[in-house]
Amino acid sequence: MKRIAIVVQRYGEDINGGAELHARLMAEHLAPRYDIEVLTSCARDYSDWAPAHAEGESRVNGIRVRRFANPLRNDIGRARVPLVHKLRFKLRRLLRLLPAPLVLPPRGDPAWDGDDFLRRQGPHCAGLFEHLARSADRYDAVVFYTALYEPAAVGVQRWGRRSILLPLLHDEKPMYLPVFGRALRSAGALIFQTEAERRLAQRMYGIDTSGAAVAALGMDVATPAAAAVDEALARFGLQRGYIVYVGRIDVAKGCRELIEAFQAHAQHHPEARLVLVGQAVMALPEDPRIIRTGFVSVEDRNALIAGAAVLVIPSRYESLSMVLLEAMLLRVPVIANGLCEVLAEHVQHSGAGVAYRGPRALRAALQRMSTLPADERQRLGERGAAYVQRHYAWPHVLQVYAEAIERVAALPAGLRPA
Fold first, then answer.
1. Chain centre distance of CA 202
2. What is the band of 416 on the pLDDT scale with cuts at 50, 70, 90?
3. How many whole angstroms separate alpha carbon 335 and alpha carbon 369?
4. Does residue 417 sit within a domain?
5. Most buried pick, 154, 330, 346, 418, via CB within 10 A?
6. Is the pLDDT score of 109 beyond 80?
7. How far apart, in whole angstroms, are the C-alpha atoms of residue 371 and residue 357?
8. In the prediction, which pLDDT does 206 show?
9. Sheet holding 213-214, edge to edge
């Protein structure tokens, strides 16, 4: 069996972030075909990177995990994007009218390029880079998640061409640092989750991505029985027909906009309820119509989605949105932020809901989608399920990865000194 390392900033069953969950599911599905080892930090929480796990080897769901020590976030100063790159992010819609890439080329200056940003943002795992430097003969290929964090952005440059990078790009301010274009160019193979992400990489960094693979994850959500849904709802004091959000409850995820739109909607619909499923990292209003469940089991999460009238994804920055696709598989209509190109494409191509633009449109979408007739809700649900089954099947995804692994494993080692 070929030996494959997977590099990701955090790893564990208790981490529900998109990139981290993506990496864990891929590790577990690749394990029957390859000898898998995960290389990661000791942290659980990205907000401070505080060590939550012991350094060294362990196993998670049978997968060998090697953890490396890391300092706290911003330990040598706050991670800041230089002003020139901030301005290009702000002016990106105008810059798209020009033929040049949106992101400026690197200069070899750690502050300008973004190496300083990556080091300060964390997690900085010096031991991980040292391990890669000693492992030219240990791994046939290394898969890196995600370009935003130093383990992948710097690790792929150190490791060289026998690498596969999943950039998981968002059109957000840090990605306008030149270091990320350098990271994408260093990979032996790129795998994008969607066509929208592939186009974004080409637009931002001027990279020809026409030959890059597009594959996300296989989706295989277990549909809960009606009795299981009723039992879960009873435990949380809910009745069917609420609006649900699942994920990190964060301003950066659009949750403040969602809560404000819901409260405006609820003024005219006092029976409305908003259920927030996940960890809150923002202050939430004391409103009895807003129910917070905290972190729940996968079974409860699926039941809470299945019992909803509609699932809402208010984030402007998503490279896939697994929970949106899982809701579609559970035949629940969706509302998604249309300012995120990936989400807009999911909704447009599936016909499973509404993509909105702006707070007023979100309020209108909540009104329309939470009061759909049963037959219309069923029709949207069936469309969503058919879309996911057509595009996100595990056999196709695993074949894309197998082809990429074979291709890069045949390349010569190209370790670059630190």
1. 19
2. low
3. 8
4. no
5. 346
6. yes
7. 20
8. 95
9. 56-60, 63-68, 35-41, 3-7, 141-145, 163-166, 189-192, 213-214
Through-space distance between the first and last CA atoms of the chain, rounded to whole angstroms? 29
Of residues 101, 315, 339, 314, the one with CA closest to residue 200: 101
256 has a pLDDT exceeding 90: yes
The partner residues of 345 in beta bridges, in order of sequence, read none
Short-list 331, 395, 356, 346, CA closest to 193 = 346
The span from the CA of 359 to the CA of 375, in Å, is: 28
Task: Give bridge partners of residue 145 from the DSSP assignment.
Answer: 166
State the residue range of the domain holding 371: 226-391
Q: At what angle do helices 322-329 and 341-350 cross, to 10 degrees?
A: 20
| Pair 170, 200 in one domain | yes
State phi, psi for 168 to the nearest 5 degrees: 50, 55
CB 179 within 8 A of CB 114: yes
d(CA 110, CA 407): 32
The pLDDT score that the predictor gives to residue 418 is: 47
* Residue with tokens 């309020």, as numbered in its chain: 363
Residues 393, 390: Cα–Cα separation, whole Å: 7
Burial of 368 (0-12, 13-18, 19+ CB in 10 A): middle
Helix (H) or strand (E) holding 219: none
d(CA 25, CA 342): 21
Residue 309: partners with Cβ closer than 8 Å, 6 or more residues away: 240, 241, 242, 243, 333, 369, 370, 371, 372, 377
Q: Are residues 181 and 312 in the same domain?
A: no
Q: What is the DSSP letter of 56?
A: E
pLDDT bracket for residue 14 (50, 70, 90): confident
Q: Is residue 416 part of a domain?
A: no
How far does CA 351 lie from the centroid of its chain? 22
Same domain, 25 and 88: yes
Q: Read off the pTM.
A: 0.81
Q: Please report whether residue 196 resides in a domain.
A: yes
Question: What single DSSP character describes residue 66?
Answer: E
Please give the single-letter amino acid code of residue 51. Answer: P
